[in-house]
Amino acid sequence: MTDPARRYRLHLESQRRQSPAFHFDETVWQTACERHPGLAQRIDVSFGWDGERFLRPLDDVDFLLASRFPHAVVNDAPRLRWIHTTGAGVDQLMPLERLRSDLILTNSSGIHSDKAAEFAQMALLMLNSQMPRVLQAQREHRWEPRLTTPIRGKTALVIGFGDLGMAAARAAHAAGLRVIGLNRSGSASGATDAAHVLAPVDALDEWLPQADFVIVTAPLTPATRNLLSAQRLARMRPGAGIINMSRAALIDYAALFERLRSGACSGAILDVFDPEPLPDDNAAWDVPGLVVTPHISCDAPDYSVRVLELWFGNFARLLRGEPLMNVVSLARGY
């Protein structure tokens, strides 16, 4: 337990270039405080934009909530003990080993699950109906009927089985698909209802040829970068479709685009790119069979409120001396 009279300083950092849904300003903070008035009384809050606060030492900050920050600045902050990131992925903060070893880093995993499930199910149904090809024909003013079999009984391979992957898996399961989940260990707590088979990602080459749909939800780490290489894409079942809800660097997009152009891959729905926003001259815009979505698969208009709801829950745990939720392993990168 902590001193009940102690107050803490929280700094909320936002970026103006992002959608207002991702801004942490006075209005959003007050909304969150109304839900947690007792906890809010223990907090003195400051607001920052575009990293300007990081130009000065964080001498008075106990907790930081931000998507990005300079490692040297947080390492030199004498009172700082806990950093919460606004997203689930922390690849933008790597290498995490450069962070001070006593800093606790938590992420916002779990707040995306409802939207992720809806997006995954929509994308699966679109791919099964070959809607990317239908939309391509529409743009080219071609009447091209495509008759497809029902989705029930087909196989979805979900690569990455954290909160995001489990949400996608449950959506696939609800649509009647056989779900194969892959993660680092081949096991997961609370996932028994989400996948028919759960296997280690080392078995990816074995499962790729069996999948009608591949859903990528794994975090980006050095181990997962280029996980779906050109060689692995070539192992996919002819006519299979692919969905990426994670990070662009997990897939060799150039090789995927070639497979889409040749028809070896029936369709793809990609929600993540590098860079973002996607430049208007990027080749992805014109790849046949590809639907480009602008990083919207997991986010909602009340995103910042969801983040603060999670943060307040963890603040309550900290005050009670309990372990925090969503602690990121600095070694594994998630």
Automatic annotation (TrEMBL):
One Pfam short name: 2-Hacid_dh_C
InterPro entries: AlaDH/PNT_NAD(H)-bd, D-isomer_DH_NAD-bd, NAD(P)-bd_dom_sf
Keyword field contains NAD: yes
Annotated Alanine dehydrogenase/pyridine nucleotide transhydrogenase NAD(H)-binding domain residues: 137-254
Keyword flag Oxidoreductase: yes
Gene Ontology MF terms: NAD binding; oxidoreductase activity
Keywords: NAD, Oxidoreductase
PANTHER family xref list: 2-HACID_DH_C DOMAIN-CONTAINING PROTEIN, D-ISOMER SPECIFIC 2-HYDROXYACID DEHYDROGENASE NAD-BINDING DOMAIN-CONTAINING PROTEIN
Record-given protein name: Dehydrogenase
Species of the source: Caballeronia glathei
